[in-house]
Amino acid sequence: MTNILIIGGGGMIGQKLARLLADQGWQGEPAEVTLYDVGFPQNGADASRRIVGNLTENGAAVGLASTRPDIVFHLAAIVSGEAEQDFDTGWQVNMFAGWSLLEALREQHEASGGTYRPRVVFASSIAVFGAPFPDQIGDEFLTAPLTSYGAQKAISEMMLSDFSRKGFVDGISVRLPTICVRPGKANKAASSFFSSIIREPLNGRKVILPVSDTVRHYHASPKSAAGFLNHAAGLDTGQLDGRLSLNMPGVSCTVAEQIQALSDIAGAGTVALISHDEDPEVAKIVGGWPQDFDATRARALGFQAETSFRDIIQTYIDEDLGHS
Amino acid sequence: MTNILIIGGGGMIGQKLARLLADQGWQGEPAEVTLYDVGFPQNGADASRRIVGNLTENGAAVGLASTRPDIVFHLAAIVSGEAEQDFDTGWQVNMFAGWSLLEALREQHEASGGTYRPRVVFASSIAVFGAPFPDQIGDEFLTAPLTSYGAQKAISEMMLSDFSRKGFVDGISVRLPTICVRPGKANKAASSFFSSIIREPLNGRKVILPVSDTVRHYHASPKSAAGFLNHAAGLDTGQLDGRLSLNMPGVSCTVAEQIQALSDIAGAGTVALISHDEDPEVAKIVGGWPQDFDATRARALGFQAETSFRDIIQTYIDEDLGHS
């Protein structure tokens, strides 16, 4: 049975991925899925095993690697706002823990005489890019991050690429759009409001929009994010010609278009729960973010996302509204 | 007096830079120059102080930072061929030692109440780029390195950028072209032959060309490299708009053009000392290297290099021939 490890398996996307694997298995067969995280939600996704632990702890990566998972999803991270506030923790979790994981997997690769070479799927982010941008970012645009989080993600991608080039692991990095609509509570990511302005009104609660509604950004649903990771795990990486980091497809729209889509689905009364109160700090961070991607390579490789923000809202309604 | 630290000050470029500072001082005034390296050449450049040490040793970075240099040139590295052969040492020297340096400087920044914020000039490399390339690489092209050395340099750039963005240091990364003509012995860099095919014949010795003479690559002299670093140290980094890594100007030419320039300067008899014997491993590495850059930003910021390969050979003859 395929042995799958999801590091960060207690997080929102980790749980979506675990549910997808529990429902569909791995390539049609049941899989042994281990979730690893600092904590898990109540009534969480089914899995073969849940391990509570912290990848930054001494020996944690070595322990996980010693089980020789066939596929490792590495989703564990401190989010952007938190990494910006706590420099040390951001680098420890988002970079050094990933290095330890790669080293531990390499040790198993070498101990196996080279036969063990796990697929590693790394959840990266469009935060690897920094302004100024072209209107639509192509697949050969430079990574010049403007946040610590973005730098840590870009660096982790490069480490994974080099370990893969050397044949120690078989890696791929998936640069996720801003995931929207996130269920549950707001988190410390500066992007959190993109979800809140949809989720809160749909739950009958007031919400504050901290930026101008002319802000344009790039989104995919949690369902698509889990789909990207699952698709990446099964891809023939020989097709990537050594460029293992892929910009995912998504929906580019303004906040005004987001709100219009909400109005189309739920009516003007729901939209009236949104009020505008600019937060200069959030506006500044978001002003440095990309607006659109062509995602040519990822689309050609079969990655699929929603094609409208209405679909993104509908996914939230179908999957999460009333469940959280 | 300006306190200048050159880490890697015993190396070829470090020595050129030390000589430049000994001759011209720092912005017209004498400077206190400390050279730090694992070893120094005999009859080396003058300096206020030479320290023998290894930046990978525990406490080494902390000790260097405690002297609070105004300017830190970080040139210490394992070269590309060696980093490819010895994965662990490459990462330790080319990445982790740089991280320790940044952390040690940040500690001094914080201990000073934020007043200490040294200029850090990092010697990066065009090895941060990996094929396939456009014919001429622009300033917004992605860094997708195809060697461990290139990955380590690209990662170090991003760390320096983030420490600078946070205000801990005031950094700039200078992506050096392949430096040519290197005096002295061949080193383990895969690019070493670009120098050998000029240097050895000029010294009356036979040499083997391990690649086809149609190979096109991008060069600057050691004198220009020292000039780039010196210019970077004095630049107002506010002009960089947060993009702190710069592709340096240089000369793009084929090996055939290099050999023609040698013939123009030294005659057919000298060129006859070159024989062709393809080394598939070197040819493969070099095949993944860039051919040309526009270097628009660096030129606009006043960085200057040779404009022909003949000038590059002449610089070697003027500065190094007969001295080594």
UniProtKB/TrEMBL annotation, chains A, B:
GO molecular function annotations of the record: oxidoreductase activity
TM regions (residue ranges): none
Domain NAD-dependent epimerase/dehydratase intervals: 4-209
Keywords (A to Z) from UniProt: Carbohydrate metabolism, NADP
Name this polypeptide is given: NAD-dependent epimerase/dehydratase family protein
Source organism per UniProt: Parasedimentitalea marina
Domain of life: Bacteria
Pfam families: Epimerase
